[in-house]
Specification:
This protein is mainly alpha-helical. It is built from 8 helices and 3 strands, in the order H-H-H-H-E-E-E-H-H-H-H. Helix 1 packs antiparallel against helix 2 and helix 5 runs antiparallel to helix 8. It is globular, with a radius of gyration of 22 Å. The structure holds zinc ion.
């Protein structure tokens, strides 16, 4: 377990991280003029304050520095959404911030808090909300899911920057149309909601990647009608064996 950090250490880190993040965000915003520079500086600064006070950044690693710089610049759109999530959860006493899942791990994890759907975690920028995914509490056994699925979304935002939000939203809109269209032409009607959810959410490349990484693509709740599958011509061939070829299986 981590030692309890002193309030002085936390305050110092908060001041330094706020100043550093605000400077980075402000410098980026200057490309668009002073009003934008003030907005980006303030948003990056808020993240710096949260991150410094809670000591989330791993300053001893290059990864931690990359996370801080990207959160303050390239990934700032997601960071700004994460700020909103942080502030909303701060106002909810039941959101339960989890330092053991966050401190020096380049992220803010809330056991409960704001979410889109009860059984799903909700991640924006470097903030993971409702990490217990509807369960009573966030247990250590769920760390793999937090690391591999939700944690990946945090890094997708840091690496792809604003493209992450743009692709996510565009995919959602196209998925809505694709899901509804499939439902309309299917003779035996599968459930509309699930088809739309599959096309708009599960099939999103960022989600596909995260479910695959967490080894939960095959068993997730996506509708098989629209769920990504390995194309037939790419199907894994059975391992060669010495037995003579048998008749092809029935289709
Ligand atoms: Zn996801």
């Amino acid at each position: 377990m981590t030692a309890n950090p002193s309030p002085v250490a936390r305050s110092t880190e908060a001041v330094l991280a706020t100043a550093g993040a605000a400077a980075l965000g402000g410098a980026l915003g200057l490309l668009g003029g002073w009003p934008l520079a003030i907005a980006t500086g303030v948003s990056a600064g808020i993240n710096g304050a949260f991150g410094g006070w809670r000591q989330v950044y791993g300053w001893r690693t290059a990864k931690g520095w990359f996370a801080f710089v990207s959160d303050s610049t390239w990934g700032l759109l997601g960071t700004t959404l994460g700020n909103v999530l942080n502030l909303v959860n701060l106002a909810r006493p039941d959101s339960s911030y989890r330092a053991d899942f966050s401190r020096r791990q380049n992220r803010h994890v809330f056991e409960k808090g704001a979410c889109m759907k009860r059984g799903f975690a909700f991640t924006h920028g470097n903030v993971i909300s409702n990490a217990s995914t509807g369960r009573e509490s966030l247990v250590e056994e769920r760390r793999r899911f937090i690391d591999r699925h939700e944690g990946l979304h945090i890094w997708q935002n840091r690496i792809f920057g604003p493209f992450y939000q743009v692709v996510y939203l565009a995919w959602f809109a196209i998925g809505l149309v694709a899901g509804t269209g499939t439902w309309a032409v299917k003779r035996e009607k599968p459930k509309l909601k699930r088809l739309v959810e599959t096309a708009a959410y599960y099939d999103n490349p960022f989600e596909f990647w995260a479910y695959k990484r967490d080894d939960h693509w095959e068993d997730n709740r996506a509708d098989p009608v629209l769920k990504w599958r390995r194309p037939r011509w790419l199907k894994r061939k059975p391992a060669p064996s010495s037995s003579p070829p048998t008749a092809p299986p029935a289709a």
